[in-house]
Design a protein that fits this description.
The complex is a heterodimer.
Chain A: E1 10-18, H1 24-32, E2 39-42, E3 51-55, H2 68-76, E4 91-94, H3 100-109, H4 120-131, E5 137-140, H5 146-159, E6 165-172, H6 176-184, E7 206-207, E8 209-216, E9 222-231, H7 244-256, E10 262-265, H8 272-285, E11 291-292, H9 295-298, H10 305-319, E12 321-322, E13 342-343, E14 349-356, E15 360-368
Parallel strand pairs in A: 3-7, 4-5, 4-6, 10-11, 10-14
Antiparallel strand pairs in A: 1-8, 1-9, 2-3, 6-8, 9-15, 12-13, 14-15
Helix pairs in contact in A: 1-10, 7-8
Chain B: H1 4-16, H2 43-57, H3 64-70, H4 74-84
Chain lengths: 369, 88
């Protein structure tokens, strides 16, 4: 039985992202054109290894100025001015990786300077100094639904009157450590991902991604109207085979979306079992709603995917056209899977979902004028 | 007479997964390795086993589906290795 979704609507004052295709608008345009950012790349970077699909903003190596820092500076320059990190304007940083690749580099190179930006706290402290944020920073990390949790926490702060505006900032850059981990699970392999496609072997891609959103109680043209979460706690890496975990979360957000005409941006990494369950559950909960996913182009941006894909969804609404499932192919697990772009004008809401190791599920309802 | 490859694999399984008190003859050839109530191997065990098999036999298991198929049982693993390494 599903708990009702948490309906704490917030306005999205600003939101943008950075992927190898560019900012949110450029990324959306790339997806609309069917571009793939993923490139077959040695899984361990300069140490070689099998070729796997990665979408990178630069060479995957752990440099002493971490490679993500200059990229994040560019993104942070787009954040509206504010006393970020102070009591009324808190910052929430979400990531599943932070600078974990630097810990791998320390083990490899024995250079202690890598440790200055390796752990979550060290990483965020570095960001705080670089971006002149105050000390009111909360860190969230819960695998691939991390950004959803940060956005939901921001909504709670705003509705509790504990903040006036909240900055949610997320980034995940691929490192040999993380790519090697997924590769050892054999879900990151030599095949390009084909989200929701019924085929013999599944595969995912991994991608660099960063994004931010500034949320407030003011009703903007686009709003996050509700959040739903569920953790099935069935298995580290597997889901309940009957799809009950997916159903619980999807039914919860479907309740909040009742009466709306929605499209669905799913998780869609390209794994077979989860992809099948996800597509079946979403098509059942949202009959006829087109289901799309973008990780077949951008790779999986892990803990940041919820925010990166929110920024792309907003750009798509501005364009009036929603990208289809790049990399997908017929036959799909559900006939609702949209392989081609579709018009936004037929809808007044979107469901954005993410799923994570541990059986964690998250969904949000995006509404717009 | 026990199949030599099968026995070698059972030794590998026992040492890789540190199955205390388990002898090769305790592992039936056709019992599912993953999810078996007797051995209770999970996906992390499977990961360790796959890496050990790749290292020991010089094969590359290409995807999680291939890995699941190969690890269905000791017999399946024997068949998989024989198909990939004719001399095994």
């Amino acid at each position: 039985m599903s708990a009702p979704a948490e309906q704490l609507p917030v306005g999205i004052e600003a939101c943008d992202c950075l992927t190898p295709l560019g900012d949110a608008t450029a990324t959306c345009d790339g997806l609309l054109a069917g571009r793939r950012a993923l490139v077959l790349t040695p899984v361990l970077g300069r140490d070689g290894g099998d070729l796997v699909p990665l979408a990178l903003l630069g060479p995957m190596d752990e440099t002493l100025t971490p490679r993500w820092l200059p990229e994040l500076h560019g993104l942070a320059g787009k954040i509206p001015a504010g006393a970020w990190g102070t009591t009324r304007f808190p910052v929430i940083v979400t990531s599943s990786n932070f600078g974990v690749g630097s810990l791998y580099a320390f083990v490899r190179d024995h250079d202690v300077r890598h440790l200055t930006h390796g752990t979550p706290f060290a990483t965020v402290e570095m960001l705080r100094g670089e971006f002149n944020w105050g000390e009111q920073i909360t860190i969230f990390s819960h695998a691939c639904i991390t950004a959803h949790l940060g956005l939901a926490h921001a909504a709670r702060l705003l509705h509790a009157g504990l903040a006036d505006r909240v900055l949610v900032f997320s980034f995940d850059f691929v490192s040999p450590f993380v790519a090697g981990g997924f590769h050892s699970l054999k879900i990151l392999n030599g095949l390009m991902p084909a989200p929701y496609a019924l085929r013999v072997h599944g595969s995912i891609g991994l991608g660099d991604g960063a994004a931010f959103a500034v949320l407030s109680r003011e009703a903007g043209p686009a709003r996050i109207a509700a959040h739903a979460f569920h953790n099935e706690m069935f298995h580290f890496t597997g889901n309940q085979p009957d799809g009950a975990g997916f159903t619980t979360c999807a039914a919860s957000i479907a309740g909040a979306a009742q009466g709306r005409r929605v499209w669905v941006k799913g998780h869609g990494t390209g794994t077979l079992e989860a992809g099948r369950i996800e597509a079946e559950v979403l098509s059942h909960q949202f009959p006829g709603a087109p289901l799309t996913g973008w990780k077949g182009s951008l790779g999986h941006t892990l803990g940041s995917c919820g925010l990166v894909e929110l920024a792309i969804a907003l750009a798509a609404l501005r364009r009036g056209k929603i990208p289809g499932t790049v990399g997908g192919a017929a036959p799909s697990f559900s006939d609702t899977v949209a392989l081609a772009p579709f018009a936004a004008k037929d809808f007044d809401g979107a469901i954005l979902t993410s799923n994570a190791f541990g059986g964690a599920h998250a969904a949000m309802l995006l509404t717009h004028d | 007479m026990p199949d030599l490859l099968s026995t070698r694999l059972k030794h590998l399984i026992i040492t890789t997964l540190k199955l205390e008190g388990v002898q090769p003859e305790d592992i039936p050839d056709d019992e599912p390795l993953i999810g078996s109530p007797r051995f209770g191997l999970d996906s992390i065990d499977a990961l360790e086993l796959v890496l050990a098999i790749e290292k020991e036999f010089g094969v590359k298991i290409g995807s999680s589906e291939e890995s699941r198929q190969a690890l269905a049982s000791v017999s399946a693993l024997v068949a998989y290795l024989r198909s990939r390494t004719p001399g095994a």
